[in-house]
Amino acid sequence: MQDTPLSAQPDQSAHAPLSRPSTPLTDASATNSLPPPDIIPTTPLGHLWAFMGIAVGFYIAYTSWTGSAPSDDWGRRWILVAIPSTATIGLWLGWRTAWQTICLAMTCIYLGAPFIAARVESCLLPIPDAVPCFADNTIVLDVASRLAHPIYYPVLIAVHLAGACFVWSFVATNGGQNYVAASSPRPSVD
Predict the structure, then answer these.
(1) Burial level of 86, CB count in 10 A (0-12/13-18/19+)?
(2) How far apart (Å, rounded) are the C-alpha atoms in residues 100 and 52?
(3) Rounded CA separation 8/6 (Å)
């Protein structure tokens, strides 16, 4: 169909409503507008929630490590979950639109940190008649258990803390965008 001026087309107002072709907005006012207020990266309240979540988690983890008996594995279980769970809640309260990115990143940190801490402990723990980092796992576990894991728990707290601060920095500098949903579009059901 040829493009003809609107005045040259026959009058069809009685038959169908007049509709204009949809064109994207390209004027300066539409492209330079600010994002919604809850995803602006400099929101002080967002940073406050994130800081409070990470600080509360660090406090719980540190007091669980220093306040429990070395042989009390049940009392030290809070070290494993304190920082990832409270940091996730704090980051979510700060940037609600990035909840999928926050949850995925903190889950990866939560699941990966014990392996990193165990490897660091096996490399730094003095084991008689063994090469560091390549000792038998049963020997490392036995020596570490007798010494109450002097390296594992501080490294675990440090990895959780560093990971939570990294996620905080990532989410804040990228404006609270949800990268998980943007990178994996859902298939259409049409």
Answers:
(1) buried
(2) 20
(3) 5
Report yes or no: 117 and 149 within 8 Å, Cβ to Cβ: no
CA-closest candidate to residue 173, choices 79, 39, 76, 69: 39
pLDDT tens figures, 88-141? 888 888 877 777 888 888 888 899 998 998 888 888 887 777 777 776 777 777
The whole model's pTM is what?
0.64
pLDDT tens figures, 14-52: 555 555 555 554 544 444 554 454 444 456 777 888 888
Query: Residue 42 CB: number of other CB atoms within 10 A?
Result: 8
Burial of 165 (0-12, 13-18, 19+ CB in 10 A): middle
Q: Where are the alpha helices (DSSP H) in 8-134?
A: 28-31, 44-67, 77-94, 99-124
Tokens representing 176 are: 């609270």
Q: Report residue 75 as tokens.
A: 């009392």
**Structure token digits, residue 91:** 């980051």
